[in-house]
Amino acid sequence: MFVKVCCIADLAEARLAVSAGAAAIGLVSEMPSGPGVIPDELIAEIAASVPRPTETFLLTARRDADAIADQHRRCGTTALQLVDQVPATELRRLRALLPGVRLVQVVHVGGEESVDEACAVAGLIDTLLLDSGNPLLPVKQLGGTGRVHDWSYSRRIREIAGVPVLLAGGLHPGNARAAIDLVAPAGLDVCSGLRTGGRLDAGKLAAFIAAIG
Question: What's the pTM?
Fold first, then answer.
């Protein structure tokens, strides 16, 4: 099972995640709200330190293809996690600008409209990531909420979207197995559920990996 450990704060947390068997780490750039934000310079430093085949995801709230591509080049990550809705025209331009980079579009699952949103964008990206934010609030929530959404919608998206689906939102060692059994995603993405006092907890990380093994 593909596991992405998100909200990596520094080199020590990156090394901990990789040593525990994470297939990817998430590096959070400037956001309107939420945990784990670090400067682009630190993202670049961490990304350069992570050995392949571990993937490095740049989480960006930008919606303009040129701005996203420029940020990606500066940070040197292997994948882009687009946490806000990016217009289809910009996604096409982004693909042309960065042909070898994995494009991961986040869909914040709230109901039936989320299924339509996911299917509409699936042909333009490589991977869907289903999370529990709320982009409609005055200050957008684009991840890191610690909330579990209705997994039945995520299962439907996984069944019909035609691209790999990663599941996020309120995951922890106690519910990871249930999430896999119900949704059958290609992987899990976890942030707050592995932290104690804001820091990545080695014990929780080991328990999470064991729970899905």
Answer: 0.94
